[in-house]
Structure formats: structure tokens, C-alpha cells
Design a protein that fits this description.
Structural class of chain B: mainly alpha
Largest sheet of chain B: none
Strand order of the largest sheet of chain A: 1-14-22-13-3-12-11-10
Largest sheet of chain A: 8 strands, mixed
Distance between the termini of chain B: 10 Å
Helix content of chain A: 25-40%
Number of helices of chain A: 20
Distance between the termini of chain A: 41 Å
Largest interface: A-B, 46 and 45 residues
Structural class of chain A: alpha+beta
Number of helices of chain B: 13
Strand content of chain B: under 5%
Oligomer: heterodimer
Helix content of chain B: over 70%
Radius of gyration of chain A: 24 Å
Radius of gyration of chain B: 24 Å
Order of helices and strands of chain B: HHHHHHHHHHHHH
């Protein structure tokens, strides 16, 4: 295509685009954001994928951006290129621990439940492993001028597995079921302050509008596969969802045995012909303990492990017969320090504790290097809005000791609470050692999860009430929930009891921002403020690891725990 | 005998009642509430309250306990808290799976350990005796999960002869099921062999020294007949008691083995129920294991009296 024709087409696209879309194109054209961020943000604000693709190559200066998310979200090893696979066959997958509760889209809260649910069910969009939103049951979406109303165009010609057409009414009823407090949905945490009861309306058969509680620039993520519960189910459905797994997805449930396993057959009538599964069947086995699934992978009883931890599955990392797919994620540990209780009511003590931590040693020792180093804010390197120009906090014992001396604290004793899962007790012991180096006596108190979390409300939970503790958080595609729930004055998970009006204002600014430039500007201010205040220590964000046999190709996963094997199969040479 | 059995059944019912009270209230002493445990720490308080209401776990403990007992009397064990299935749909298949593993372990270990014990007794003090007794005890001293890891590394990962899981595919034939269950069964064999063999050996040595054995030998009976008719019949009494008491352990105490081999037996069910605060499942599973314990010890007592007329059950009182 000639330069003239390209310019003409770009102008035509710009003429038909909203102010927000034009702003994004300007930002990319000026080199303020990277190509990847342009694509990702374009998908969030609802630009069509072909247009994004065209603009990505036609515009842009090729300048290197200083704040681009160069290492975001992609598979950092393997799993990248599509390979030739044989059609047919049954893929055996292992999952640990598998669904631990009844599989009900409204209530499901665990990775296992989510993983099996999203084989037969679908979302409005799919948050892929680059954190880009791929349209699924929504064809497109647009915000109004301030981002307080989002309009989704619903795909036509899609049917549920029983042959019933999927309409805008099904979408609106699925979302309203989640935002209605009486249903006790697990999505209420995500929708708090964003989407109230009955705010989703089916305008016609193919249009749904969401009238939000306030402007929100990342709303499409909250109704994408990034939200555990936002699965589209038939409006007329009642009864137990797990009996038939009604959905529109590429797999139909064949047999489900709770606590044991599930099998699916391919849905040959799937609406997207490019994603009709190449395999005939998939069988998923559940393993209550991770070690059992690692053994099953090593002995060849399963072809794929959907997810294994770097700590539990070290044996797989160097196994020549196994391919490991690594995804950067926002999975993290929050080390809270009560900002309103001695000795951490003095920010110098909090800063000193954070400076005593050797993050590189933690990442190498606990995860064999399979983690990103944290910089004491929830802005993980995986997020495109994270400003990487903010200086990384490194271990500096001399400075830490000086701060402790300035604060006049020496030999203070603090109980460090956590529970006996993952690497948490190891981290507690290591923090104890770091504390000793600066004169803080930390005493780990490791209990079971039930004791640590208690009733999970202030006043009835060691997690939220203790002076110091370590809490495990799963992956989210955007940091909104972490920023609000963990750290705002009214945050329901604010274990640090951090109250800072400036921070609250900045978070509001970040959440409401519609363009990536404004989001990144707010992010930088938040990162700098949190680094100074240090209400919590965020030592690392570890990778989501998946393993496959060498003869299995095209397995895709997201760090939420979804897996997509529509293109997967056994390689032609095997 | 009938009076004895009736008395034991009555005592058994009292034991089960006490067990049910103990399990229910002890489990409720554990911190955290049920809805929170099911939905996780990050679910909203409204969601937790709604689930607790739906499950009835917001009711007073005594009400919950009475409701559960009423259900038992009607043959309804309730539904599991986490997966919302009828408890009976989970419990009976789990019990049957545990029974299969126990049966296989017994089929291997009982003849093997009795033979070993008798052989050691017949060669008392010899090297063969020491190998059997010391070897058996050493094997029993190693925890079952260590055996599990060793056997998995050698036979599954190393030689690739046997599967690393005990969860045989649905619809498998008997031989396939045996193949899947061999490794966990052998873990139990190693743990039980030393114990049973030692009892068999001690009983045999005692019988060999007894006057009736000496008389039988002096009157010229062949050694095989002496062993079969006089020694074994008397020496195996304590062994049978030991074996019967292991039934309860095999049917409900194999939590770690079942977890390592991913076997959906009753041990794993109890573990899962305890960690999820799933009281209906926990209560039902513990009570069923309690029944198995009571029945197996009762059978042991009856067998004891049948094999040894000197022991008259309830005879002293009648």
C-alpha cells in the first residue's frame, strides 16, 4: 500500500473514531506509548482488532518509549509460536487442587472452578496472556465521553449448547445476578463502587449498556474473563449449573465427578470456526495436593499441568521431556505493617524494614528466579500502566539502620502473622532474619488459613487486625482492586490501616482515567507516594507456570487460571 | 453369645453417639466460619452471610446438631458444604474404594506376614529369624508416606512399571484396578508386615513350647500335622486380633497415602471435610469409620471365641 493510500485510510479511520480513540492514536503516533500498549489499550476501549492492527503498523514513530511495558504479559519462555498439530485425540490435563466448591458461576471463587467453567462457558471478552481483550460474546464496546456508561454490542448467531440463541438479555441478566447483593456473588468485591444492582440493561437483542457508579477507564476488564464470575449463562436457567455446564463455549461437558475429574467433547457447532477444537476430547484430573500432580506429569500420566508453583514444581523446570510455559503475572504477597501501631506508626521504621529485604535473594531462593521483583506498590511489572522509571528499592542495610536510629526504635518485638500455604512460612522466616539485621525482632506466627483470615472483617481477623502479616493475592489483569481494597482509607482489605487522602485522590484519578497517558501519570504519582510511605512491602510478583509434554503444542493459559486448548493437540512429528 | 453381641451393639451405639457429639463440637471449635472457608478470604461479607444462611450454618450449634441427627434417623446424611452433593453420594463410593485398597493390602500382607512369622519362629535365633524380625520392624518403623515416595520413585518414575496414582479410570477391570492399587497396597504391607509377623512369631514360639505340642511330637505325629493341628491353631489367636484391629486403620486412617496417590477414599474425604469445615461430610465419614472399627473388633472377639473355646464370651456372667 502506498504512503498516500495509508495516510488516506488513517485519516478516514480517525474521522470515524471517538475523541478517546483519537487521543490514543495521537499518543502512539507521538511515541509516548509502545506498540504493545497501543494494542492493549485499543482493545480495552473497544477499537476493532483489524483497525488496531492497521494503525499499529501505519502510525507510530518507531521511537523507543521510556515507559513502555516491554516485558509485559508475554510468555517469557516457550508456548509462543503456533505449531502444526494432528487433528483428533484426547488431551489429559492435571489440575491442583481442582474445583473445591460447587461450580456455580455466581459464587465460584477458586482457580480450579474457574478453569473448568470457562471451557464450556464464555465471557464478553477474553483477557489473553498479553492482557489484551479479545472479543468473544461481545463484538465490540464503547464508553461514553467520561467512561461512566459503557455500551457493548453482543454477538449475534451464537447459541447455547442446548440450541437456545444467546441474546443481550442473557448478558444483562448474568451481570445483574452478580451485582445483586442478595445472590451473594463473589463478584461483589470487584463490582463494589463500580456496578450496582440492575445497572446492566438490554437495550435491544444485540446491545447492552452498563451505567456505572462513576467513570471507570478499565471497566471492560471487570466484565471480561478477568472477572471469575462474569460468565454468560442463559437468562432462563435455574437449578444447578454444574449438572449440565450450560454455555456457548468450544467444549461441551461430557462427565463431571466432583473432587475427581471432568471430561469434555469438542463443540463442532462452535460459532467461531477458527476456534473449533482440533482435539476430540479433553480429560482433566484433579489432584488435591500439588506433589501428586507433579508426579503424574513426570510419570507421563497427564500431558499438561494447567498450573504449578515454582516452589512445588522445581523438578519440572529442568526436565528435558517437559516444556514449561511461563507467564508474568500480578500474583503477589503483601507484607502489611500497621501504620497506626508502634513501631510501624513511624514511616522510617516501615522504610527501614523494606530496605532490609534482599528481593533478588528472595526471588532466586524461593522461586528459582521465576518472579519479578516488587517495588512496594501493587503496580507489578506486568501492568502496562506501571511506570518503570520509578527507582527500584534495593537492599540497603546501612540506610535502614540509620532510619531505625533516627526513629529511636531498637529491639522492638513484633509478631509476624501468616498461614501455612505456598512459600509463606519460608518468607516469614526470611523476613525474621532481615528484621534481625536492623534490630527488629519479628516472631513468625504461622497458623492455618482459617485462623489467619478469620472472619475477614476488621476486628475479627488476624489478617486485618495484626501489627504485621503476610497475605497472598492472586492475579488480576488490572491493579484497580489491589489499589482500592488494599490501600484506600475505606479499603476492605486494608490490613496496613493506611489512611492517606492524597493517595485516595490519586487512586480515584487513576481509576477514572480513560487514556493510558493519564493512567500512567497517576500510576507514577501513586508509586512514588507508596514508595515513600511504605504501608506495605511488595517483595515480588511470581510467574504463572504451566507444563506440557514435548509433543503437545499450542496450549494457551492466562495467569488467572484459564486455559485455552482450542488450537492445541499432539504435534505432527510425535 | 447373643447376649454378648447385644451388649456390644448397645455399647457401640453409645460410643457412636458420643463420637458424633465430640466430632461435631470439636470441629466447630476450629476458627473461621463455614461460608468464609468455602468462598475464600476475599469474598464480600454479604456473599459469606448469604451462603451461611443457605447452608444453615448461621443457626445455633445445638440446632445444627439436632437437625443433622434427625436427618440420620430419616436416612438423610445431608449435603456436602463445598460441592453441594448428597453426602451419601460421596461417602459410600469412598468407603468402597478404601475397602478395595484394604482388601488388596490384606490379601498380600496376611499370608505373607503369618508365613514369615511362623518361619522365623521355627528358626528362632537363626540369621533367618533375625532378618525377618529386624527387617519387618525396620520396615514398620518407616512412615507409610516415606514408603510411598520410595516406591513411586522406583516403580513409577524410575522403572515406569506402575502408575503414580491409585485413581484407576472409571470402568476399569479388576486387573487394572489391582495394577493401580499395588503401590499404595505395598506401602501398607511394609507398615503392617513387621507387626503381624512379630505377633505370629511370638504366638508360634509360645505354642511350640507348650505341653500339648511336646505331647503331640512325642506321640509321633509328623511335624506338618503338629504345626497345622496344634501350633497354628493356638498361635494365631493374638494375630487374628491384631489383624482385626488394623481394619479400622486401613478403612479410615490412610489420609496421607490417599493424598499422595490421589485416591478418593474415605481418608481423603475426612481430610477434605476437615479442611473445608464440611461438617456433614466429616460427621458422616467419622461415624462410618467408627462403625467399621466397632464391627471389626466385635468380629475379632467372636472369632477369638470360636477358635479358642477357653474364651467364653459373656460366659462368666451367665
Amino acid at each position: 500500500m502506498s504512503q498516500r493510500e495509508t495516510t488516506r485510510r488513517v485519516d478516514a479511520i480517525r474521522a470515524g473514531s471517538s475523541e478517546l480513540e483519537n487521543h490514543l492514536i495521537d499518543e502512539y503516533d507521538a511515541g509516548h506509548i509502545s506498540r504493545r500498549d497501543f494494542v492493549r489499550r485499543g482493545t480495552v476501549i473497544g477499537m476493532s482488532v483489524p483497525i488496531i492492527g492497521f494503525l499499529a503498523s501505519a502510525c507510530g514513530t518507531g521511537k523507543k518509549t521510556s515507559t513502555g511495558g516491554a516485558s509485559t504479559g508475554t510468555a517469557v519462555q516457550a508456548g509462543g509460536k503456533e505449531v502444526q498439530v494432528r487433528p483428533g485425540g484426547t488431551l489429559k490435563l492435571g489440575m491442583s487442587p481442582g474445583p473445591t466448591t460447587e461450580i456455580d458461576p455466581i459464587k465460584v471463587a477458586d482457580e480450579g472452578g474457574l478453569g473448568v467453567m470457562s471451557q464450556s462457558g464464555e465471557f464478553l471478552s477474553w483477557s489473553d496472556n498479553k492482557l489484551q481483550l479479545q472479543p468473544r460474546l461481545a463484538e465490540s464496546w464503547k464508553p461514553n465521553a467520561d467512561g461512566s456508561v459503557w455500551t457493548f454490542k453482543i454477538r449475534q448467531g451464537v447459541t447455547f449448547h442446548d440450541g437456545t440463541p444467546m441474546t443481550a438479555n442473557d448478558v444483562a441478566s448474568s451481570m445483574n445476578a452478580l451485582s445483586d447483593p442478595k445472590n451473594g456473588s463473589n463478584a461483589l468485591s470487584t463490582f463494589a463502587g463500580v456496578l450496582s444492582k440492575d445497572s446492566a440493561k438490554a437495550v435491544d437483542d444485540s446491545t447492552v449498556t452498563f451505567e456505572l457508579d462513576g467513570p471507570n477507564g478499565n471497566f471492560p476488564y471487570l466484565v471480561s474473563s478477568d472477572n471469575y464470575n462474569a460468565l454468560i449463562v442463559p437468562a432462563s436457567f435455574s437449578g444447578k449449573w454444574e449438572k449440565t455446564f450450560p454455555g456457548t463455549g468450544p467444549w461441551k461437558m461430557e462427565r463431571y465427578t466432583p473432587n475427581s475429574g471432568i471430561s469434555y467433547v469438542k463443540n463442532a457447532d462452535y460459532w467461531d470456526k477458527s476456534r473449533v477444537p482440533k482435539l476430540d476430547r479433553q480429560e482433566v484430573k484433579f489432584y488435591p495436593k500439588e506433589q501428586a500432580q507433579i508426579l503424574a506429569m513426570q510419570s507421563g500420566e497427564v500431558d499438561v499441568l494447567v498450573h504449578f508453583s515454582p516452589t512445588g514444581g522445581r523438578a519440572l523446570l529442568n526436565d528435558p521431556n517437559i516444556t514449561v510455559i511461563e507467564l508474568r503475572s500480578s500474583v503477589h504477597r503483601e507484607v502489611h505493617m500497621r501504620n497506626d501501631k508502634a513501631p510501624f506508626n513511624d514511616k522510617r521504621v516501615r522504610q527501614a524494614m523494606a530496605l532490609a529485604v534482599d528481593r533478588k535473594a528472595l526471588v532466586n531462593g524461593l522461586f528459582g528466579g521465576k518472579a519479578d521483583i516488587g517495588n512496594d506498590s501493587p503496580f507489578a511489572p506486568v501492568f502496562p500502566t506501571t511506570d518503570k522509571s520509578v527507582p527500584q528499592r534495593e537492599q540497603d542495610l546501612a540506610k535502614a539502620k540509620a532510619l531505625m536510629q533516627e526513629a529511636g526504635v531498637n529491639g522492638a518485638s513484633v509478631e509476624l502473622n501468616t498461614w501455612d500455604g505456598f512459600e509463606l512460612s519460608d518468607l516469614a522466616q526470611l523476613l525474621q532474619t532481615y528484621g534481625q539485621k536492623i534490630g527488629l525482632r519479628l516472631t513468625p506466627n504461622v497458623t492455618d488459613a482459617g485462623t489467619y483470615y478469620g472472619d475477614a472483617v476488621f476486628g475479627k481477623s488476624p489478617w486485618l487486625d495484626s501489627t504485621m502479616g503476610i497475605t497472598d493475592y492472586g492475579h488480576r489483569g488490572v491493579p484497580n482492586l489491589f489499589l482500592t481494597a488494599q490501600l484506600t482509607s475505606k479499603g476492605v482489605w486494608n490490613a496496613a490501616h493506611f489512611r492517606n487522602p492524597t493517595y485516595d485522590g490519586l487512586v480515584k484519578e487513576y481509576v477514572q482515567a480513560l487514556d493510558i497517558g493519564a493512567q500512567r501519570a497517576a500510576a507514577k504519582k501513586i508509586q512514588v507516594l507508596l514508595l515513600d510511605e511504605t504501608p506495605n512491602i511488595y517483595p515480588y510478583f511470581y510467574f504463572f507456570l504451566t507444563s506440557t509434554k514435548k509433543n503437545v503444542g499450542n496450549v494457551e493459559v492466562s495467569a488467572m487460571g484459564h486455559y485455552d486448548i482450542t488450537k492445541a493437540g499432539f504435534t505432527t512429528g510425535s | 453369645m447373643a447376649k454378648f453381641i447385644a451388649k456390644r451393639v448397645a455399647l457401640g451405639l453409645i460410643t457412636l453417639f458420643l463420637l458424633s457429639v465430640l466430632v461435631f463440637f470439636m470441629a466447630n471449635v476450629l476458627p473461621g466460619n463455614v461460608g468464609r472457608r468455602v468462598l475464600g478470604p476475599f469474598a464480600s461479607p454479604q456473599a459469606v452471610a448469604a451462603l451461611n444462611h443457605q447452608l444453615g450454618t448461621d443457626q445455633p450449634l445445638v440446632t445444627q446438631y439436632v437437625d443433622q441427627m434427625k436427618g440420620y434417623l430419616k436416612g438423610d446424611m445431608g449435603t456436602t458444604v463445598a460441592t453441594r452433593q448428597p453426602v451419601s453420594d460421596v461417602l459410600w463410593p469412598a468407603l468402597w474404594r478404601s475397602a478395595k485398597l484394604a482388601i488388596l493390602a490384606f490379601i498380600i500382607v496376611v499370608p505373607l506376614s503369618i508365613l514369615g512369622g511362623v518361619y522365623a519362629a521355627l528358626h528362632e535365633g537363626s540369621l533367618r529369624d533375625r532378618v525377618i524380625t529386624v527387617g519387618g520392624l525396620s520396615a514398620a518403623a518407616v512412615p507409610d508416606f516415606v514408603w510411598a515416595v520410595v516406591l513411586l520413585i522406583v516403580f513409577s518414575l524410575g522403572l515406569g512399571l506402575l502408575p503414580s496414582t491409585a485413581a484407576f479410570p472409571d470402568g476399569s477391570g479388576v486387573l487394572t484396578q489391582v495394577k493401580y492399587l499395588l503401590l499404595p497396597a505395598f506401602c501398607l504391607v511394609f507398615v503392617l508386615f513387621g507387626y503381624i509377623a512379630r505377633m505370629a512369631r511370638a504366638g508360634t514360639i509360645e505354642s511350640l513350647d507348650a505341653d500339648y505340642t511336646r505331647t503331640a511330637v512325642i506321640k509321633g505325629l509328623p511335624q506338618r500335622a503338629v504345626l497345622r493341628r496344634h501350633v497354628l491353631r493356638n498361635s494365631l489367636l493374638p494375630t487374628i486380633a491384631v489383624i482385626a484391629t488394623q481394619v479400622g486403620y486401613l478403612m479410615g486412617g490412610l489420609v496421607v497415602i490417599e493424598l499422595i496417590f490421589n485416591y478418593q477414599g474415605i481418608g481423603q474425604m475426612i481430610f477434605r471435610a476437615a479442611t473445608q469445615k464440611d461438617f456433614p461430610s466429616l460427621e458422616a465419614a467419622v461415624l462410618v469409620v467408627g462403625v467399621v472399627f466397632l464391627v471389626s473388633t466385635l468380629i475379632a472377639d467372636i472369632l477369638y471365641s470360636v477358635l479358642n473355646p477357653r474364651v467364653r464370651l459373656g460366659g462368666a456372667e451367665s
